[in-house]
Amino acid sequence: MKRIILLSGICALCIQSILAQEKMFVHRSDKITQGVLLSVLDSMTFVNEAVLLHLHDQDAPTYSMTEIDSLSFGDNSLQIKILYSDTGIEIVNPLAFEGVSISVDDGNVIITSTISEEVEYILTGTISNGMFKIYSDKKFILTLNGVNITNADGPAINIQSGKKVTVNLTEGTINTLTDGKKYADSGSEDMKGCFFSEGQLIFNGEGALYVQGNKKHGICSDDYLLVNSGNITITGAASDGIHANDYIRIDGGSVTVTSDSDGLDGDEGYIEINGGKVQITSTSDDVKGIKCDGTFTMNGGEIHMSVSGNQSKGIKTKNDLRINDGTIHIQTTGSVAVVDNDPSYCTGIKCDQTVYIAGGNIIITSTGTAGKGISTDGDLVISGGDVQITTSGNGGTYTNTNSILDSYSATCMKSNGNIHITNGTVTMKSTGSAGKGISADGEIVFGAVNAEGPVVDATTTGAKFLVSGHGENADYANPKAIKCIGDLTSHSGTFTIRCTQDGGEGMESKDVLTINGGIYDIETYDDAINAANQVVINGGYIYCYSSGNDGIDSNGTLTVTGGIVIASGTNSPEEGFDCDRNTFSITGGVLIGTGGSSSTPTSSACSQRSVLYSASSATSGNLINIQDANGTNVFTYKLPRSYQTMTLLFSSADLKANTNYTIYTGGSISGGEDFHGYYTGAVYTPGTKTTTFTTSSMVTTIGSSGGGGGRPGH
């Protein structure tokens, strides 16, 4: 009777307030508050210790007197507040009679919403065994305002709605979600992660969210997932850290993932990074830091990744991969795994289609056996940006699918198709045995016509190793700075290439190697430039120095039409220019070749004169000068090394027909310009007059020079 009198008194005292408010709130003793629109409330009836609310066109809700603590009045709101606690969950539901029903079952809050408006659910508090679960016909907002939910037998957040969910992380708050290792039976409902949604997930706000996925994924959307802001950390996941079926897009905020499987998995969709910071730690074998079947695109932001599992990948996509801007730092330490006689490598970036790099800063470090920096089954196209890759893992042998002993080795940049590098900065360093800098099964193209071109620095320091056989039949895996099976064509750019160990070659093509322009500084142990079928040089500034083999070696023909080309081979039988007695054509440019011997230009294929000069010995740093009868310098060159016996090949348009010339050795030089010992515009003070010659033929031979090159007059 007292409660009835109290409620009646409240109603009488609040008549004036009611007129100014939109809702009456029923505060229940079970800590659930329900709101009723005053505009639909006809009356309240007190019958037999019960309170009946009479609403327009709705069933009359009934409360027992013991259920109601109090009544209050306030404004209408689309916000539903849920305060979690192990001692009881407090809920304020102003939409209880407008389409949002809420029940609580042992810490599990279950919501069914049919309302047409966008409702905001605000979660706070801590519960040690509970859940937030919702069914909603419309999109809604989920605000995490310092909530900590642990669920022993299911997801912490379970959204059984295919509509868009905007997740707000309140600034200054820390929110934690933890699921169980085993889930209770859910019938036909999906529950794929600690934070699961059937619909789209959009994260906003400046708060922090920590998710521990013990059963499967950390965060999972069966639609798409977008991060605009916020600090999201997946502290651990039994499967993927973040998984979305349609796509994952990160425009801002911070995402940190540690997982037993993939870090970010876009499934059959795409992944796009436009801003923010992504940090991923991956330790398991055969997993991916970032993975999608669609296209991976990066337009900004940062990616920092550590990958330590064998045959694991940093970024893996089945479709194209595009990097337009942003920063990528990937460190891999995993090793190769041979599965069914097929090696699978730990790789920084792996793409099944084409890789496009137009900008950004990419740094990849690989320390595992046969590790790869960037590897693509399709083409690799670099038109800008800064790409730095270092591999230090050694190579090894395995038995391939044809039951033949084969080899693998670390490679900074590998394409099963073509590689086109038109601009940007590319720095490759491989220190493991038989390591490669840039390798393509198709063609390699550098630069573009009338363009500045890329800056390329490629270094290998690892030794070759024996794969099979012995003696003359031995098969070695050799280090290579730049190599391709198809044509290698360079239009422009600046190149610094170093290969310090036996077998190390600078630029190698198994077909035709063509240089049309650019600046090249190549120092190797083996051939600096090598081609199986033809070397063609039409321009550029080219310096090739081999400490153990030829400067420039073509197993087919050798053609020079322009440029300044300096090729220094080692002692006999190695040569500055070597084309195995095939046609050696010179129609322009400046050629300087030194070695124990030299191929001889083919007179019938030349329109520019050459001189072959042999000396019984030569000393590093000594000058060789050629001048005409008027004392005009035609050629001044400082020797890059000493020789027991030396053959020098010089060709220039300055060598005129039927003209007398004098060769000086020693002396001094001042002024002018110097390109690796070749001086132009300098003042030469003569040393010792060595010999004279007359250019009475296309190729003039002085001394007993001539090697395994093209034959004069042939």
From TrEMBL:
Q: Where is the signal peptide?
A: 1-20
Q: InterPro entries this protein is in?
A: Autotransporter_pectin_lyase_C, Cthe_2159, Pectin_lyase_fold/virulence
Residue spans crossing the bilayer: none
Could you tell me the superkingdom of the organism this chain comes from?
Bacteria
Please verify whether the record's keywords include Magnesium. no
Keywords per UniProt: Signal
Q: Which Pfam families match?
A: Cthe_2159
Q: What is the protein name given in its UniProt record? A: Carbohydrate-binding domain-containing protein
